[in-house]
Amino acid sequence: MSVVVGTAGHIDHGKTALLRALTGIDADRLPEERRRGMTIDVGYAHLTLADGEVLDFVDVPGHDRLVGNMLVGAGEIDAAMLVVAADDGPRAQTLEHLELLDALGIVAGLAVVTKVDLLPADDPRRAGLVADVEALLARTSLAGSAVHLASSETGEGLGAVRLALADLRDRVRAGEAWAAAREMPPRLAVDRAFGVRGRGRVVTGTLRGGTLAPGAQLRVVPGGASVRVREVQARGETVAAAVEGGRVALNIAGDAAGTVARGDVLVPAGPIPTGAAARDLPVATSRLLVAIRPAVDLTGRGRLVPLPADGEACRLHLGTAQVDATVRRNRADLAREGGLLVTRMSLAAPIAAAAGDRFALRRPSPAGTAAGGIVIDPLPPAGPSRRHMDRSVVAALLDATLDGDVRAREAALLALHGALPAADTGEGGRAAGVAAGPLVLSRPVAATLDAEALDAVAAHHAARPDAPGLPVADIRRTLARALRRRATVTPAEASAAAAALIDALVTTGRLARDGDVVRDPTRASGPPPALAAAMDRLESALATAAPPPFGDAVRATGCPPEGVRALEQAGRIVRLDADLAFAATTYRHLAATALAMARRGPVTPAAFRDATGSSRKYALAILEDLDRRQVLRRGPEGHVPGPRAPQPGPPAGSPGGPAS
């Protein structure tokens, strides 16, 4: 992957001229920029090093009114090149750009004092300028960066700058973040979007992660629309694929191509990540869990800028996006040494963000850098998950994100949320959690639910000692409600997870299941003797072609509701309506009689009544039930065999038939 270096510095300090001298490319691409002699929007150039590898450059504007454009360019760089003019020294935007680079956490860089041709070679001011710039850098994340003298006009020092840039590339590539970025799926934060006559929409940006080739389907974040890559260009040349990252231009097509704009991020199309564990690709979000740290104030004597207060409105600059943001501080925030604070932010509009993304916060008035930070969770806990947030878990998530430990971060995310969709949970989360249907639960949440299930069964046994067990439907509802009190999941996810937990408790022997009830495995299976006797009495009462009303039979036999459920679940009784039931053996005999009569000719309710010795009410109920199940079909003259009637067996005594 190509390393991307961003320029920084005050207006008219020679940033664009230095790039032109180094690369031969004029990064001022707009007529207005050339006319006014200043960079207005982000420009680009590239340099082929002595070893044949290429560096990409992002040239940013230095005017104080264009800081927003500067941050668009700086949001996707790997390193910085600070430029200070020898005839002017560090000025206002020199300091502001350094403050913003510090806020963004840029640690690799170098500085170049340009226009040294204006000072004689033996002028002591040269050494003084180098010392001044080194002192400025020492108060920022770029402390220790080399400072070089150069002239874009005479070429003095340009060779040394090129060597320093090669060394800068090697330092960036030696970092852990660089290795991690190579393994990520491709993502391109759009910094320019424009139309080309006859070609359609073109977008440019810095490519991170994997390869992009023509034909690739991409999703626009935060919009969610899909676009297709028609052509890929790198450094002004059409290429078969962008495989080394760096600066890329894409000609895109699709119904939504015309709406893609600066600040959007293009990622591979496919299922949209829905859970907080969707870490590698940016997701659309309007709230963030972040770690912020005070910005350095280079105009003062080493002091830090106070962090934004609760409810304070700032401007968030993340990647190539800018959006108004409000800091939401509370007592649950995690504070660390050096002023680092883990807190939440709400955004005025959705943006694309991923864990580990760097950002800067600026105050609108008086304008200035408020803080720098990193995204800890782009989809932070909400609802029940937020109420159960644990500071120790937040600390573990912060450490894992700062260390780049993916598995530890995934485990901490699961612990933070309590439950995540299994499809969006990484290996670290799955290893640290408990699979439960469509979800992965944190171990504390799973243990709590297991305990609630066992307690519910024990309580049911204590309250209903004669009952065979607790209905599965009841315990599933209990566990689903308990899960939704502890984690932010949908009702369907909670119900499916509860069913999976019950199955696991049965599989491991902590519960036993008999049909649709669960019980303590130390209790004997089947109903207790008193309940079994009541069930037998009810079954016997219904074993007639003209049974009593069901409610009367239940009361007369003293069969409790759990006994009725058990009889139905075991298939020992058949309910035709709320107050009519038959013993199953009786019902099967009556149904067989009706089908046999129908095979001989259409059967009427009256004929069936006479054949069974019942009454018209019972005869009609049986025939209508067989009609519903399509065993019979009612015709003009009576009921005949229906499409689901079993085929008659061979006659008795025939081969394959019953013995005579």
Structure description:
This protein is an alpha+beta fold and 660 residues long. Among the domains are: 4-179, P-loop containing nucleotide triphosphate hydrolases (Rossmann fold, 3-Layer(aba) Sandwich), CATH 3.40.50; 184-268, Elongation Factor Tu (Ef-tu), domain 3 (Beta Barrel); 542-549 and 569-641, Winged helix-like DNA-binding domain superfamily/Winged helix DNA-binding domain (Arc Repressor Mutant, subunit A), CATH 1.10.10. Strands 2-3-1-4-5-6 form a 6-stranded mixed sheet, with helices on both faces. Helix 12 (443-463) crosses helix 14 and helix 19 (605-612) crosses helix 20 (616-628). The relative contact order is 0.06.
Main sheet makeup: 6 strands, mixed
**What fold name stands as the CATH topology of one domain?**
Rossmann fold
Strand order of the largest sheet: 2-3-1-4-5-6
Count every beta strand, where a strand is a DSSP E run of 2 or more residues: 30
Cα end-to-end separation: 87 Å
Characterize this entry briefly.
By secondary structure, the protein is α+β, with helices and mostly antiparallel strands.
Question: How are the SSEs ordered, and which strands pair?
Answer:
Blueprint: E1 4-8, H1 15-23, H2 31-36, E2 43-48, E3 54-59, H3 67-74, E4 79-85, H4 92-103, E5 109-114, H5 124-137, E6 147-149, H6 158-173, H7 176-182, E7 187-196, E8 200-208, E9 217-221, E10 226-234, E11 237-239, E12 246-253, E13 265-268, E14 283-294, E15 313-318, E16 321-328, E17 334-335, E18 341-353, E19 358-364, E20 367-377, H8 384-387, H9 391-403, H10 406-417, E21 419-421, H11 427-432, E22 433-436, E23 439-442, H12 443-463, E24 470-471, H13 472-486, H14 491-507, E25 512-514, E26 517-519, H15 529-541, H16 550-557, H17 561-569, E27 573-577, E28 580-583, H18 584-600, H19 605-612, H20 616-628, E29 632-634, E30 639-641
Parallel strand pairs: 1-3, 1-4, 4-5, 5-6
Antiparallel strand pairs: 2-3, 7-8, 7-13, 8-12, 9-10, 9-13, 10-11, 10-12, 14-18, 14-20, 15-16, 15-19, 16-18, 17-18, 19-20, 21-23, 22-23, 24-26, 25-26, 27-28, 29-30
Helix pairs in contact: 9-10, 12-13, 12-14, 13-14, 15-16, 15-17, 19-20
